[in-house]
Fold this sequence. Notes:
mainly alpha
Amino acid sequence: xxxxxxxxxxxxAELLGCDPAELTPxxxxxxxxxxxxxxxxxxxxxxxxxxxxxxxxxxAEQPTLGHWTEILAGKTA
Length: 77
């Protein structure tokens, strides 16, 4: 299964306790409270869903939804 933009947005929004519509591609997710433990949880979840080569640093270096969507779904948010 490939990760879709909608799935990525929904997973992040669920962790943050907000509506996916509130998140923009430029949103810094750490500013919204996403910490390293939660990011690691997403890495593990998304690896199990097909993102085999995903590493923590891929997400932590640039914690924006647009960047994550680009590396996970191969397209911009």
